[in-house]
C-alpha cells in the first residue's frame, strides 16, 4: 500500500486499474476452477483434473470458450477492486494508532471489514452470475443468451435475492481472503525492508509479496469457495442452506471435495494477487506523482 496519506479517489482509481489488469490476464484459470467445482463425483467424470478440463474445453469449443462468463466478472471487477482498496484505505487510516502505526491485528480486522463490504455490495451477485453462466453452458440446451439475459431471467424468476445465492459463504470467503491477504502482504513487505528503513520496494518484490499472500489465502479459504460455488450453481435448489451444503458435500464426496479446483485457483490467485496488489502500489505511485 502507499506509504503516504493519499486522496480517497486515488485508492479507488488504482484499485480499479489493478483489478481490471488481473482479471483479463487470469480469467481462464477461474473458468477451469469453476468447471471442476461444479463437477460431481462419479465413476466416469468428464474431467480428470484441471489440466484435462482446459484441454478438453479448448479442443471442443476453442480457446475463447475459456472466457465464457468473463463479462460478468469484468463488469464487477473494476467496482469490486475499486471498492476494496477505497474501503481498506479509509479503514486503515482510521485504525492507525496515535503514532500513525497500523498493527497486524488491526490490519487483519480492516481487511475482514473490507471483505464483508465488497461481498455484500459487489462480489455475491457477480459470482452468482459467473457461476450460473458457466454451469448453463454445460447444459444440453442453455437457457441464457449472455449476461444481461441471464440477469433479467433470474430476477424475473426468483427476484433480486436470486442473484444473492450463497451470500454467507461468499462473505466468509471474502472476509478471510482480504483479512489474510492484506495482513500477509504488509508483513512480507515490511520484512523485505532493512530494519528501520522505509521507502518504496521494487515491483518484483511487491509481486513476490502479493503472490505469497495469495497462496496462503487460497489454502485457508478454499472450502468457502467450494461451498459458495455449489450454492450458486444451477443445482443450488438441492441445498437448504450453507450448513446443509457443507454436510451433503462432505457426506457424498469426502473432506477433499472442499479443496476441489485448488490446482486451478492457486495459479489464478497467486499470480492474480501478484498483479493486483503490486499493481495497486505501482498505480498509486503514478497517481501520487501526477496528481
UniProtKB/TrEMBL annotation:
It is a multi-pass membrane protein. One of its GO terms (cellular component) is mitochondrial membrane. Transmembrane segments: none annotated. GO terms for molecular function: citrate secondary active transmembrane transporter activity. It is found in: Mitochondrion membrane. GO terms for biological process: mitochondrial citrate transmembrane transport. Keywords: Membrane, Mitochondrion, Repeat, Transmembrane, Transmembrane helix, Transport. SUPFAM superfamilies: Mitochondrial carrier (SSF103506). Its main location: mitochondrion. InterPro entries: MCP (IPR002067), MCP_dom_sf (IPR023395), MCP_transmembrane (IPR018108), TXTP-like (IPR049563). Solcar repeats lie at residues 6-94, 105-191, 201-286. Belongs to the mitochondrial carrier (TC 2.A.29) family. This is Mitochondrial carrier protein. It comes from Cafeteria roenbergensis.
Amino acid at each position: 500500500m502507499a506509504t503516504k496519506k493519499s486522496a480517497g479517489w486515488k485508492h479507488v482509481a488504482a484499485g480499479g486499474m489493478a483489478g481490471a489488469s488481473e482479471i483479463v490476464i487470469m480469467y481462464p484459470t477461474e473458468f477451469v476452477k469453476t468447471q471442476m467445482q461444479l463437477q460431481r463425483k462419479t465413476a466416469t467424470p468428464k474431467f480428470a483434473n484441471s489440466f484435462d478440463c482446459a484441454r478438453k474445453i479448448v479442443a471442443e469449443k476453442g480457446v475463447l470458450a475459456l472466457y465464457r462468463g468473463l463479462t460478468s466478472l469484468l463488469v464487477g471487477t473494476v467496482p469490486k477492486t475499486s471498492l476494496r482498496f477505497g474501503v481498506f484505505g479509509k479503514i486503515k487510516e482510521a485504525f492507525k494508532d496515535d503514532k500513525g502505526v497500523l498493527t497486524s491485528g488491526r490490519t487483519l480486522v480492516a481487511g475482514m471489514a473490507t471483505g464483508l463490504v465488497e461481498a455484500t455490495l459487489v462480489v455475491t451477485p457477480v459470482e452468482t452470475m459467473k457461476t450460473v453462466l458457466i454451469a448453463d453452458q454445460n447444459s444440453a440446451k442453455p437457457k441464457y443468451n449472455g449476461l444481461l439475459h441471464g440477469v433479467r431471467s433470474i430476477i424475473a424468476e426468483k427476484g433480486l435475492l436470486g442473484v444473492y445465492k450463497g451470500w454467507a459463504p461468499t462473505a466468509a470467503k471474502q472476509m478471510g481472503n482480504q483479512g489474510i491477504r492484506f495482513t500477509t502482504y504488509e508483513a512480507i513487505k515490511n520484512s523485505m525492508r532493512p530494519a528501520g528503513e522505509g521507502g518504496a520496494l521494487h515491483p518484483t518484490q511487491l509481486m513476490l509479496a502479493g503472490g505469497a499472500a495469495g497462496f496462503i489465502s487460497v489454502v485457508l479459504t478454499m472450502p468457502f469457495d467450494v461451498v459458495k460455488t455449489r450454492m450458486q450453481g444451477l443445482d443450488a435448489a438441492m441445498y437448504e442452506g450453507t450448513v446443509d451444503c457443507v454436510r451433503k458435500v462432505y457426506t457424498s464426496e469426502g473432506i477433499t471435495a472442499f479443496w476441489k479446483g485448488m490446482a486451478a485457483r492457486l495459479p489464478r490467485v497467486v499470480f492474480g494477487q501478484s498483479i493486483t496488489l503490486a499493481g495497486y502500489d505501482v498505480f498509486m505511485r503514478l497517481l501520487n506523482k501526477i496528481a
